Amino acid sequence: MKIRKSGPAAAFVTTASLFVGAVAHAQSFDCSVDSKGSNVSQTTTITAPFSGTLIGDFDAVNNPTGTQTRPGLFGGSGNNPIPYTASFVLDGELVSNPLGSFTMDVDLEGLQVSISGLSVDLLGASIATLPATVNINYQTFRTFSPNSLFPGGVTIPVPIGDATISELQAFQNTKSAPGVLTVVKGGGYAFTAAVPVDLLLSAEVLGAPVAEKSIIPGLLPISGTLEFTPAGISFTFSISGSDSQSQPITDGAFTNQPLALPTVIPTGGTANLLISGAVTEVSTATDLTATIVGTGTAPAVPGDLDGDSIVNGNDAALLLNNWGGTGVGDIDGDGSVGGADLAILLSNWT
Length: 350
Prior knowledge:
With 350 residues, the chain is mostly beta strands. The protein is built from three helices and 17 strands.
């Protein structure tokens, strides 16, 4: 006599028999950076060439004792603009506690990892400052009040205070970045990957942008370790690399910004001038080292009814035991446990 199977058990056997080869070995983890435990040290040089005019801050009504500028060695009168060429230079070390997140897929069977959606704020939602210098070269001119001669053709570095860097973020620009896992003696895994990113940079000097949401392509080489925890994974990895890029600037004009120019002949004084011009290009050079630590949790998997982050026979048993009922096993939320819920469970079988 043959026994005919029917009901949910038959549905399970039939559907499972069609589910050959659909087993997924990789586990996905939503990872976040622990800002307090992470740090970034970055030596940054930003250079922005520009040109324009210098002029004294004399004003017959509001500043009658202010500086006047006149071209050449002799003659002339009034307050006249002096042509110049120059470059902003920002140079220094930034130390910060970064913020960020990414998704890591871990395949223990294939010993592979994949990183996607990486987004890291390297400044940790803060504003950084770097000392700024203007290296300026001008035609020969004179100032009055103070009286001084400024011989032309010589580049003079002029400290102008601090520049502000309001944005320095890295965004992954590929769908995924594959990496390799190796088993570590004593437990855990080591991994390496290289993540292509776009660096978003915004910086300002003298009230004018030398970089405003500039996009700089780069590559973050990552190496570190991960361990499995009851909640998911914990990870530590380091980033080390250097890069240099140049980009044109289309909106870098500034007008009548104060510039305290040290006198040349004689020395010891200060000529208070106004500087106007336009930044045409920004070049950046960076050396980056970072230690990033954090945790990752497995996102909820449809069909994982017992909460162990995998979908297997235990979950199927829970669903079948509640077939036709409500609650446990009602994956699609239609108020009843049935064939549609079983299909979802099997599609996420691990």
